Amino acid sequence: MAIYVEAAKCIGCEACIPACPYAAIEMVDDIATFTEDCTSCGACAYACPTGAIVLEMGARDEVDTTEYSGIWVVGEVSSDNELAGVTAELLGEAKRLAADLDDAEVSVVVMGHNIDHLAAAAAGWGADKIYMVDHEVLARYRTGPFTDVLTGLINKHKPEIVLYGATTKGRDFASRVAARIKAGLTADCTELSINPETKLLEQTRPAFGGNVMATILCEFTRPQMATVRPKVMSPQDFVEGAEAEVVPINVSLDEKTVATKILEVIHDDSGSDVNLTEADIIVSGGRGLGGPEHFAVVEELANALGAAVGASRATVDAGWIPATHQVGQTGKTVHPKLYIACGISGAVQHLAGMSSSDCIVAINKDPDAPIFNVAHYGIVGDLFQVVPAMVAALKEKGRV
Ligand SMILES: Cc1cc2nc3c(=O)[nH]c(=O)nc-3n(C[C@H](O)[C@H](O)[C@H](O)COP(=O)(O)OP(=O)(O)OC[C@H]3O[C@@H](n4cnc5c(N)ncnc54)[C@H](O)[C@@H]3O)c2cc1C
Known about the structure:
- The protein is α/β, with parallel strands linked by helices.
- The chain has 3 domains: about 1-55, Alpha-Beta Plaits; about 65-255, Rossmann fold (3-Layer(aba) Sandwich); about 275-395, 3-Layer(aba) Sandwich (Rossmann fold), CATH 3.40.50.
- The chain has helices spanning about 15-20, 45, 85-100, 120-125, 145-155, 170-180, 295-305, 315, 350-355, 370-375, 385-395, and strands at about 1-5, 25-30, 30-35, 55, 70-75, 105-110, 130-135, 160-165, 185-190, 190-195, 200-205, 210-215, 225-230, 245-250, 280-285, 310, 340, 360-365, 375-380.
- Strand 11 (about 200-205) and strand 12 form a beta hairpin.
- It is elongated, with a radius of gyration of 24 Å.
């Protein structure tokens, strides 16, 4: 990848200077000129109004894969300025992969504002090195500045593997970075491993409606990048007081150059803001409920157990419940201690999102329903009799 200025096209407007996150452009004789801090992130090329700055991508066989090493996790910072759970999970997975890559270094990139306290958390979850990028423009995730910063870091430090959470932010971010650096990206992986012979990252994900598991390789480009859904990988045990090398990264970001502005953050208090992925207990309803009004049956059991309410896609598609409740391949992947499926048949796409739950209880009137193949406890019966009986039993025990 190379970046250069076509002097004849440069009009000396200086639009590139505030666009550069690494303050690596100065004007020499009214022509934009790169300093040695340039990371070829390309932010200036996008800001240049005359096309004078050219970002040239090499052909795929020009990428020297031997220059790349180490595994990076892109840290996600939650709205309360803490490290999101998915980052701990990715660090755990990165450590496991590193063991098969001659103990490669595991680093995490944390971008945000007032984030010093996150270094201890990242170290405790297993990071060997932490790149800390603290700037007020990064206080909340926005595609533009986050992409500029991470692209520059990747170009400079050349990690071999980069992992992102397949969250709303991670999906948006990873795809933009992949396009900018012309690297491959495998979305929504459920399994990662290192091929013992080629040392390539094997990125496995469901394909063709979940009927086939596809393993994808990025042989020619670097880094090899993947998004992984929350709750699919397990974190390592947290090590209190663990130490890691902290690398502060100075960036020069100008709010005026960011195309998107966050005017207000509005929390969804409509009841549809369900944190299924964090819930310890989930009670889910399926088409067996027969209509939207009968979700009350599921909600009553959920309330009694302090559980979140989940749903099959059939009920979401029917408009019985908002999509934020959907569990499964195109919904959320969950890993609760207890998952109670009420009137759900157990289609492979539903199982893709919940079959790793610690304990699954299925209630279905069809004894041959596939959900019973994954259930630890199966109740063959009418949910309209079984679920109220469960609630009554909980009431009897003083739980409600
Ligand atoms: C690309 C793709 C992605 C998909 N993604 C998802 C996904 O993310 N999540 C998802 O859930 N699905 C997904 N699906 C849809 C999936 O294939 C099924 O259609 C869906 O899961 C079925 O939902 P269900 O089990 O609620 O309904 P059904 O399959 O209709 O099952 C209803 C069950 O209720 C039982 N029942 C009926 N009445 C009662 C009663 N009174 N008491 C007890 N049991 C009763 C029936 O015996 C039956 O087993 C996807 C499909 C495709 C093609």
